[in-house]
Amino acid sequence: MPRLMIAHPSADQYGSDLQLLETVVAARAAGWSVLVVVPEDGPLVPMLAKAGAHVVVQRFPVLRRSTMSARGLVGYALSGLRAIVAGARSLRRAKPDVLLVNTVVVPTWLVSARLARVPVVSHVHEAEESSGRTARRLLASPLLLATQVIANSRATARTLTDVVPSLGRRTTVVHNGVPDRGPEPTDPRIRRPQDPAVVAIVGRLSPHKGIDVALEAVAHLRREGRDVRLEVAGSAFRGYEWYVAELEQRADEPDLRGAVTFHGYVDPARKVIDKADVVVAPSWRESFGNAAVETLLACRPLVAAATQGLVEVVDDGRTGLLVAAGDAPGFARAVAKLLDDPEQATRMARAGRADALDRFSTRRYAAQMLAVLGTASGRNTTQRRGRAAGARQAVGTVELSEHANPRAADRPRVHVAVPTFRRNELLEPLLGMLAPHVLGSPSLADRTEILIIDNDPDGGARDVVAAVAAEADLPVRYVHEPRPGIAAVRARAVEEASADGLVVFIDDDGLPGESWLGPLVETWERTGAEAVAGRIVPGFVDEPSAWSAAGRFFERSNLPTGTLRRSAPSGNLLVDVAGVAALGVAFDPEVGMRGGEDTLFTRGITEAGGRVVACGESVVVDLVPPERDDRRWVVSRVYGHANRSVDVELAFTQGVVARARVRTASVVRGVVVAARGAARWVAAQATRNLATDASAWRDLARGPGLVAGGLGLQHEAYRRS
After folding, report:
1. Cα(655)–Cα(453) distance, rounded to whole angstroms?
2. Is the pLDDT at 566 greater than 50, yes or no?
3. Between 3.30.565.10, 2.30.30.40, 3.40.50.2000, 3.30.870.10, what CATH number should domain 197-359 receive?
4. Which tens digit of pLDDT belongs to each residue from 247-297?
5. Residue 407: per-residue pLDDT
6. Scanning 71, 341, 506, 685, which has its CA 20 to 30 A from the CA of 254?
7. What is the DSSP letter of 122?
8. pTM for this entry
């Protein structure tokens, strides 16, 4: 039985505490034994015990704001040294396969794990941006001791990599999983605009939660003559009694007197949320927003601050409304808009619940957390190596069977993901071509959505997608991914999909062939493969040049259905989200503009023991405009592919000596290929043979690419001006 030990800084019942509980539930369900260490007793302890964890109360220091002074840091350092020794001793006794350090405020456990030689995963729930860069760097730097880092949102990950960029390679974003508690929710109550209204807020009574902003918004609504009450559910940390006093004093002023109720801590929060007409989440900073997700699950209209993790939870205008943080009049206007338009409020509430069930389920959270913990602990190493040995040979076929994949009966949701960057003119015709493949299949029409992942920093495709979605007969969803690079876009698509769903990639300059989506899904159903790769054929806008036709630069392999592939391109690729999560494989956003993210990802599947299966019946046409049918563009692409192939090989090579061999072999092979290209070029000049000339230029580009890759010189295939 694998053993998990967890160090957690409190025994309370708020966001990170309850998320820890979900981690314990997931680990126990997967057969792990769980030991949780907390510094004090509290209400969380019996909850953890009920979930199957063994809980130990062991004193250790926790970083607080009060610690961030000269005197506080000295005291923390002294107690920290004792805690490091005690922690290492506890780890040696418990002998866990992996230690999970929950939040960044207990860094001593990271040092203890290193001393005890125990793999350690840090789960970061804080997205602190208000402090100076030096303080933030000091807080994030201990994470360099972690084997892997889990961030609860992209906002949290950015706050880490902003001050310690090297953390990016070991950081995985796993959105919180929020349980759907309580009875099946009803729609928001039907009310007339003049009827009394209830606005609710759930969260810690802390300045950064913006409780005061909610009070001012309700005061603004009441000054307009609206009969609005505010229900506040939450209590304060020790030391914030002054803030509670200020809130109570403000609530007792004439414009709010009798209209605000402070309930204290409420469990479950649904008791308050269910009675609300609108729920607000006006936080100044919020790494994720569990209370916001609880609101969506309860099918209640939500108005949230456009900040950090809340932007990832709320799809503005579809599942809720976003308002600038601190803008009390703006919150008042948004609440009034929902109160005055109950039909819109109901539409948003229903869409919010469906979205939350899809993206923030405990099932998805469990699968992703266990994948990271399993990878860090090395529990799957033997199985993976054994299966990977066969995968590296990349030969043979997989049996196609009507009953090979038991998950097929569950009819998982299908997400057709279209990455795009400033090609708005291609989106509308592409979406028109995708629709028949979905709507024309009874088995796909009711479970497929189109995801447009926009990599334009300005979100330039938003209006185009909104216009198309309004007229479309199937769900079309817009997602903005500001991190530059196709790898970040593909990673975001998988994040946006349901935990047990299927993501099907087609690029914005690709066109579905006569047969496309159905065969991909059918091949997955008949094989259970982690990925299915369809055919990609070139589609020249003009007649191809004689030189590129002779060199066949745009042609790709056509493998029969069922063929096992070592790797595959992602322009026509189906990904089983649960399957790759179980292997611990994901697109790496750190690839940035270099390209090759598809080879790295699919090769990662086969190296981890998974399967990438070809589907010859699924076809996507890759448009080749005249500017690409150009010798300079083709040579640059061949150079980039060769250069990136070295990075991919290094990614799956362990040990300094082995990696040095890969680099040396790449340089030698590159020199040989370049020399062959030079000889072919001479022959081509003599014979005037286009095919020989094309082969010569292929070698003359590929050889230097291999040499540069071996020397560590990276090429940015998708560099933007």
Report:
1. 37
2. yes
3. 3.40.50.2000
4. 999 999 999 999 999 999 888 888 899 999 999 999 999 999 999 999 999
5. 73
6. 341
7. E
8. 0.64
DSSP 42-70: -THHHHHHHTT-EEEE-------GGGSSH
For domain 383-628, give the fold: Spore Coat Polysaccharide Biosynthesis Protein SpsA; Chain A (3.90.550)
| Residues comprising the chain, all counted | 721
> What does residue 563 show for φ and ψ, rounded to 5 degrees?
-70, 135
Burial of 262 (0-12, 13-18, 19+ CB in 10 A): middle
Q: Is 478 exposed, middle or buried (0-12, 13-18, 19+ CB in 10 A)?
A: buried
Angle, CA 630 vertex, CA 625 and CA 631 arms, to 5°: 155
Residue type, 58: Q
How far apart, in whole angstroms, are the C-alpha atoms of residue 7 and residue 99?
Answer: 8
DSSP E strand boundaries for 255-337:
260-262, 278-281, 302-305, 321-323
Neighbours of 632 (CB within 10 A): 8
Asked whether the beta carbons of 304 and 292 are under 8 A apart, the reply is yes
Cis ω for the linkage preceding 9 (within 30 of 0): no
Tell me the β-bridge partners of 478.
452
**H-helix or E-strand containing 703?**
helix 690-710
Query: Cβ contacts of residue 317 below 8 Å, gap of 6+?
Result: none
- The pLDDT-based confidence of 383 (bands split at 50, 70, 90) is very low
Residue 493 · residue 415 · CB < 8 Å: yes
Neighbours of 326 (CB within 10 A): 16
